[in-house]
Amino acid sequence: MQNYSAERLFALLEDRKYSEFATLADSLPSAEVADFLGELDRDQLIFAFRLLKKETAAALLPSLDADVRLEIREGMADEPYLKVSATRAAAERLPWLLLLMLSSTFTGVIITAFESALASLVILTAFIPMLMGTGGNAGAQVSVTVTRALSLGELAPRDVLRVLRKELCVSLLCGLGLAAANFVKICVFDMMILKSAGVTVGVALTVSLTLLVTVVCAKLTGASLPLLAARLGFDPALAAGPAVTTVVDIVSLLVYFGTARLLLGL
Length: 266
Fold this sequence. Notes:
This protein has helices at 3-14, 18-27, 30-38, 42-51, 54-60, 66-76, 86-103, 105-113, 115-120, 123-126, 128-151, 160-193, 201-231, 236-264. The protein is mainly α and 266 residues long. Helix 7 runs parallel beside helix 14 (236-264), helix 8 (105-113) runs parallel beside helix 14 (236-264) and helix 13 (201-231) packs antiparallel against helix 14. The longest helix is centred in the middle third of the chain and has 34 residues, at 160-193. The chain is elongated, with a radius of gyration of 24 Å. The model has no long low-confidence stretch (mean pLDDT 82).
């Protein structure tokens, strides 16, 4: 394959200029496009092949290696969203929802285990929804981003360490920003303006530190679970999203009550 053609196809794919990619591939000899596709990994191959015009794809198949043709057939067997029946979609989603519903009972067990701590400082209860909600949102953000990158062929399961390194930096920056804003909010709004009973600087510090740890754990979990699901052959969109919320809820509660015991002596 001519280097210029390969580089141009790669560049258009990377820049997400998909219509131009299809047009260029249509204008090139089948052998050149076949060589280009043979250099892609499986996810990239399936995605790139879907972009080709039907006539180009049909003419190209005979010139591909047998292994490449097999990967394409397996990948193209996945039906588009609108063609999947409601019954089949429910059957695929229900087991995950059932499993995660049962696993979420651990949050109730944790709250019950720390019932005495909550009874001694009831104000701690008021911050639980915020911590769990923020953690869930943080995890969902990165989970959706990674799942989309997987579907576009921008990421593969082998990229997990690179993704985790990046998300560790992102999560620390986001967590520190949220923790600082939350600390100021509790000290100014809850303590000085509302004069809420039981709210102290110690409580503000406990909630803010928990928020920082929760956001970091949520983003790392949200980044790794879609990649793990893809590695195991599961649909990342079905498996990772609900699992992130469940894991983050459990982690946030454990960190919250552990920090409260350490800083507030409960």
